[in-house]
Design brief:
The chain is mainly beta. It has helices at 2-17, 32-37, and strands at 46-58, 62-70, 86-93, 106-121, 124-138, 144-146, 171-174. The protein has a domain at 20-138: Beta Barrel (OB fold (Dihydrolipoamide Acetyltransferase, E2P)), CATH 2.40.50.140. It has a 5-stranded mixed beta barrel.
């Protein structure tokens, strides 16, 4: 009986920890670099991409977001780090406030590849795949918590130079954006 209960609790915990995608994941879902090489071969293909916003510009009926592509986690959130998969342009119907959809914010999009556009990145001519977005998700800003000491749970409460009941309040180290 105890073993069955233990197995049930462990299974429930593991299933509860699995991340459900926030956006639908397209199959196949080619990376930006592959699409960039042959945009015409991928035209009208559904994709799910994400990354970090470079800039947001608004026109009369739609907004345009320039995004540096990143790999996605199982929940479709972009992975932190310097590795990039290329750049792309996402077009969203309606107005997106550039103060909210600001540079360095993480975003994931689901949409259809509609073409390509060539623009300059410094002096380099860069071909951007253009995606008409059907769904998007702007991720909350990642916050790093730091309480001033390394708390190693392998040691007991008597390892620390202060009583175990002493807890410093956790503070937010930095918040860059909203």
């Amino acid at each position: 009986m105890k073993i069955a209960l233990y197995i049930l609790v462990v299974t429930g915990t593991l299933l509860g920890c699995s991340a459900k995608p926030v956006l639908p994941v397209a199959e196949p879902n080619p990376p930006v670099a592959a699409v960039q090489q042959k945009v015409d071969a991928h035209k009208n293909m559904a994709i799910t991409w994400g990354g970090v916003i470079l800039e947001t510009n608004n026109a009369e009926e739609q907004s345009e977001i320039l995004i540096i592509s990143k790999r996605l986690t199982s929940s479709t959130r972009p992975v932190e780090g310097d590795q990039t998969l290329g750049r792309f342009i996402a077009r969203v119907d309606g107005f997106l406030d550039p103060a909210i959809y600001s540079p360095d914010r993480e975003i994931s999009i689901h949409g259809t590849i509609i073409g390509k556009e060539s623009r300059k990145v410094d002096s380099f001519d860069y071909t951007y795949p253009v995606v008409q977005v059907t769904q998007h998700h702007l991720w909350p800003v990642r916050v790093e918590y730091y309480d001033g000491y390394y708390d190693n749970y392998w040691y007991g409460p008597y390892y620390h130079p202060y009583p175990y009941y002493y807890h410093r309040p956790r503070s937010i180290k930095s918040i860059e954006k909203h």
